[in-house]
């Protein structure tokens, strides 16, 4: 994957197909978390390809259902890249189809933006976000909670270098001090919600050589208007099939948490991508996913309000009414 960012959020590279390994989400889901209907099937089970200028085959996109419903902006991006993207080489040798620059907007008042056209691993999303908020850089805590999505990058001691959590919570200054960007962010939202500096960055150029994986979702900003908190993420490298569904859900969850901590309602989550790509060996899976009809969005229920953003537990979150189509397995480009 380009820049190793075709991860499933921070995507795993285990020997098991990574996109849709079964993870028990029973602790966080209530009702209909199992695979749902499989969606329409095209003639002979596949869509007829048509020639593309690059010589690659592609599908008849006009045959796919396009209801303006749950997660439609994500499906539109997938269609757009599949049909109009430029075929490019990449570091892994797999090859990608890519566009540069795209934006999606999700109204968090309308539901929690969790992809429904394939099953998404909620447990990994929540535990990884809590791990980031701890400022942690060692995979042991994730492993202790049954999450292995960072294992392939960790060294023998489980260390990953100064990645997301370190930058969020302990950004180093030239004087040798450290800045807790998350704590500062929440304090600023409470003190000056109209500020245009409500920003957290994981892209620390000086630390990148020591990171096992440079940040893909690198920079995010918050915005307060009419009593609602919105968030915009910039993701420099976006594996649309494997990684982006995970990233959307993770930052939507973070927005809900910070809104609760600052006594605001949620507004929009805006996702902005740089290199937005599909791997060539995911095209069949893309066809399968685009042939499915999106289902209604679930709701997020946060069961309590902790004293601090850093005190949330996995059990505090409940996804209500998540219905999804079956998982779609896909290889991870290494």
What does this structure look like?
With 334 residues, the chain is α+β, with helices and mostly antiparallel strands. The chain has seven helices and 13 strands. The strands form four sheets. It has a six-stranded mixed β-sheet with strand order 4-5-11-10-9-8.
Sum up the structure in keywords.
single chain; 334 residues; alpha+beta; six-stranded mixed beta sheet; globular; thymidylate synthase activity; Thymidylate_synthase_AS; cytoplasm
Task: Please sum up the structure shown.
The protein has 334 residues and is of the alpha+beta class.
**Percent range of helical residues:** 10-25%
| Overall pLDDT score | 85
Strand order of the largest sheet: 4-5-11-10-9-8
User: What is the terminal-to-terminal distance?
Assistant: 6 Å
Strand residue percentage: 15-25%
What string gives the helices and strands in order? EEEHEEHHHEEHEEEHEHEE
Radius of gyration: 19 Å
Uncertain regions: pLDDT < 50 for 5+ in a row? 8-68
The outline comes out as: globular
- Main sheet overview: 6 strands, mixed
| Helix-and-strand structural type | alpha+beta
């Amino acid at each position: 994957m380009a820049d190793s960012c075709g991860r499933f959020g921070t995507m795993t590279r285990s020997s098991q197909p990574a996109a849709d390994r079964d993870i028990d989400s029973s602790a966080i889901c209530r009702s209909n978390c199992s695979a749902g209907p499989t969606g329409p099937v095209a003639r002979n089970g596949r869509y007829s390809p048509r020639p593309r200028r690059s010589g690659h085959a592609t599908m008849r996109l006009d045959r796919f259902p396009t209801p303006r419903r749950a997660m439609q902006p994500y499906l539109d991006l997938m269609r757009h890249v599949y049909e109009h993207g430029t075929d490019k080489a990449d570091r892994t040798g797999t090859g990608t189809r890519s566009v540069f620059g795209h934006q999606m907007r999700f109204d968090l008042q309308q539901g929690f933006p969790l992809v429904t056209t394939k099953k998404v691993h909620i447990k990994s999303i929540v535990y990884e976000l809590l791990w980031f908020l701890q400022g942690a850089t060692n995979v042991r805590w994730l492993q202790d909670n049954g999450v292995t999505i960072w294992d392939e990058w960790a060294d023998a001691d489980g260390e990953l270098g100064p990645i997301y959590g370190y930058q969020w919570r302990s950004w180093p200054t030239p004087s040798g001090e450290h800045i807790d960007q998350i704590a500062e962010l929440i304090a600023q939202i409470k003190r000056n919600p109209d500020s245009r500096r409500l920003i957290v960055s994981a892209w620390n150029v000086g630390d990148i050589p020591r990171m096992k994986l440079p940040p893909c979702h690198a920079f995010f900003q918050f915005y307060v208007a009419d009593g609602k908190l919105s968030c915009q993420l910039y993701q420099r490298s976006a594996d649309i099939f494997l990684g982006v569904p995970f990233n959307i859900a993770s930052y939507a969850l973070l927005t809900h948490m910070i809104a609760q901590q600052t006594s605001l309602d949620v507004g929009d989550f805006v996702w902005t991508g740089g290199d937005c790509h599909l791997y060539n060996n995911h095209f069949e899976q893309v066809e399968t996913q685009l042939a499915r009809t999106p289902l209604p969005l679930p709701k997020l229920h946060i069961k309590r309000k902790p004293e601090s953003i850093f005190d949330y537990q996995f059990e505090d979150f409940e996804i209500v009414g998540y219905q999804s189509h079956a998982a779609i397995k896909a290889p991870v480009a290494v």
